[in-house]
Design goal:
three-stranded mixed sheet; 3 helices; BirA Bifunctional Protein, domain 2; six-stranded mixed sheet; about 230 residues; alpha+beta; about 20% helix
Length: about 230
């Protein structure tokens, strides 16, 4: 029996940002109180721009897509259909209580996901996120309360990149953004990418998934003593 901690994974599907934020807060408080396990929330959002604590006034969008101010670090970014969003709510153990290391670990998760599609991801000195060549494919912004993490990462899979226009995503030129589908042949949707995010987050952070629930026993036949004859 392994001593690795267990990670609960919850897929929220396409989820309004306000609802996902509420679920994050609920799980966060439960994790701080020791009433919930380490949890990974996976979802997509309808179009929204979130404003992190590091967003200067000149980079704030003025109109169009809904805008929400949030507690995470980093600057403004876009969430929308075709983007895989992951919110790890993890109690960092003593040896991992370093936010710079945590950000690098999340980047490593994304880099490993990209490698599954034979795409090379990289980091940029002084910046947070993951790049393919000179284009940014994943944005990361986190918050921590009592050494329990929340918020997380957004990986552009089939995202409409035009949605990044009109503001400075993470303080950058919108033209710098890219998506995985422009670099590899991708199936529709984000399910495969979500599965790979779970796989590599478990590897990087040393988690295991809980065993699957036992299969339900088949219902007993109401006629157990009747002979069975082949059909005609």
């Amino acid at each position: 029996m392994s001593d690795a901690p267990l990670l609960e994974v919850r897929r929220l599907g396409t989820c309004d940002y306000a609802e996902a934020h509420r679920v994050q807060q609920e799980v966060l408080e439960a994790r701080i109180a020791g009433e919930a396990p380490d949890t990974l929330l996976l979802c997509q959002h309808p179009a929204v721009i979130t404003i992190g604590r590091g967003t200067p006034p000149e980079d704030r969008p003025s109109a169009g897509v809904p805008v929400v101010e949030v507690e995470r670090g980093g600057e403004a970014t876009y969430h929308g259909p075709g983007q895989a969003v992951a919110y790890p709510i993890l109690a960092l153990p003593e040896g991992r209580r370093d936010l710079h290391r945590y950000l690098r670990d999340l980047e490593e998760v994304v880099i490993r996901v990209l490698s599954e599609f034979e795409v090379e991801g990289s980091r940029r000195e002084g910046l947070t996120g993951v790049w393919i060549g000179d284009r940014k494919v994943a944005s990361i912004g986190v918050a921590v309360r009592r050494w329990v993490t929340w918020h997380g990462l957004a990986l552009n899979v089939h995202t409409d990149l035009a949605a990044f226009g009109g503001f400075s995503p993470c303080g950058l030129d919108p033209a710098v953004m890219t998506r995985l589908a422009d670099h590899a042949e991708m199936p529709p949707g984000t399910t495969l990418v979500e599965v790979l995010l779970v796989k590599h987050l478990c590897e990087v952070f040393g988690f295991e998934l809980p065993p699957p629930p036992p299969l339900a026993s088949p219902e007993p036949s109401p006629f157990p003593d009747l002979p069975i004859f082949p059909g005609h």
